Amino acid sequence: MIGDDTTPTAAVPAAGRPSAPRTGETRRPGTPARRASGSTAVAPRTGAFPVRPPVVSQGSAARFAERARARRRLAWRQILIAAGVVAVVGALAWLLLLSPVLALDAEQVEVTGAGTVVAVDQVRDVVDDEAGTPLPRLDTGALRERLLDVPGVRDATVSRTWPRGLTVALVSREPVAAVPESNDVVAQAQGDETLDAGGFALVDMDGVKVGRADAPPEGLPVVEVPVGDARILAATLGVLESLPADLRADIGQVSAGTQDTVRFTLRDGATVEWGSAQDSALKVAVLKALRAAPETAGSARYDVSAPTMPVVG
């Protein structure tokens, strides 16, 4: 109207309310209204979103199944390997410890070193007790101890000869001297109270009686020492042990009043003043030189008790 000073104005939407659609703007049903510029209003949630289940393809399922089969095959393989190892160990244990494959055969036992005084039959009797025992189970140490009880055995070595044999190497107590049985040194050493005054005890290097004889065997010297003195007998036998075999074979008799006054009587009748067991190698060399030299060969007496100053008479 003319003369009216009021001007029409657009309506201002209330705060928090959605504005009316603009001219020419359409809004789809179900679509939230556009927020006004600078507005902080958030559209309300209508509820939790649904979780979709994982989708497994046919290829993934096949791979899972193949892996499971591989694990089962590996487990069975390990079980079979363990069972095989147990079977092999059991078979070896039976073969080595129980079966007759490696059992000792008495016919395959070899005995050496019996010498002249050890009865081989007695040695074999001891070994035959172990016949049929598998070699891995055979106690060679215990067998050796039993062999040392055989008369005349000084030492023994027992070794296996595969697959079913045994080797017994003996060190026999060979006699080196004949001692009159009237000398009770031997009786005291052996505990023998039934000595024949007319016989001879055959003793080895250790003074152990290994036999007897009515007369001194050829090649063995007769030892004469004070009755009952084992120390002098041991010293005399020690001197004989230090001599070479050829010189020992030339000795017919050995006598001693003390440990340092050993004397030999050679088979040709000459005497040798030997003295103690010291410097035996030098004494042997000096005596051989004196007996070989033209000036002293055939002498009746050789004194080598002081080998650097020998005396010939």
UniProtKB/TrEMBL annotation:
TM region positions: 79-102
Lineage top rank: taxon: Bacteria
Keyword DNA damage annotated: no
GO cellular component: plasma membrane
Main location: membrane
Comp. bias regions, Low complexity: 1-15
GO biological process, one term: cell division
Keyword vocabulary terms for this entry: Cell cycle, Cell division, Cell membrane, Membrane, Transmembrane, Transmembrane helix
InterPro entries associated with the record: Cell_div_FtsQ/DivIB_C, FtsQ_DivIB, POTRA, POTRA_FtsQ_type
POTRA domain segment(s): 104-173
Subcellular location(s) per record: Membrane
Region (Disordered): 1-52
Keyword Metal-binding among UniProt keywords: no
Protein name listed in UniProt: POTRA domain-containing protein
Organism: Cellulomonas pakistanensis
